[in-house]
Amino acid sequence: MGVRKKAQGTEGQGPHIGRRGLLIGGAAAVVGTGVVMREELSELWWRAPGVTKPRVDGAVDFTGARWVAASSGNLRRADRPDDYRVDRVIIHVTQGSFDSAVRVFQNPSHGAATHYIVRKDGHITQMIRELDVAYHAGNRDFNQRSVGIEHEGWVDKPSSFTARMYRASARLTAGICARYDIPVDREHIIGHVEVPEATHTDPGPHWDWDRYMPLVRAERKRLASSGRTPDPGATRAAE
Ligand SMILES: [Zn+2]
To answer: How far apart are CA 92 and CA 78, in angstroms?
Structure first.
């Protein structure tokens, strides 16, 4: 989320386009560019019964996260990383309380949500499985290739970003990087504002990248030395 820079973007910024809408969009693309049509068709193929991986109710991708499902209007079912390669982590700031972020992500008309929300005290709630495409970047390509993390706070309020929040978020991001073999650098771990054609300014100037990145690197190293690469969906949600 965060402060909007200008006009609304594409995916994830407006009302949800339902399956019917997508089909109509795909057919309409025949008149337009063939590239778009092929993209829609390949997505529809992944929607065929029996193609997607089995899912366990309440499973989370990050051990310790609590599961609260986002509305299906704020995401697209997918089968990542098999259908789309995951190579970016995108950092957001909510511009509101943790509870209000959870609420809007449950609202089907919001049209946007991230995979995770990190609370000020370091608690993490997962609302969308990493398998699925969350509408959070305002850019279709970046939605498909990324995992989105919201942080409770305000871009113009430095006190929003607590030590516990940075540590918890760093553990989360390091786990994502381990799962998908994403390099821990600022090309692959970016702010919403750095997404091409981004319409939002979060995480803003007070998000301390110089503090955050070494924490992510340390957590990533710790995971590597433990020889543990957590499987997506392998753990049950924290009670
Ligand atoms: Zn954002």
So the answer is: 22
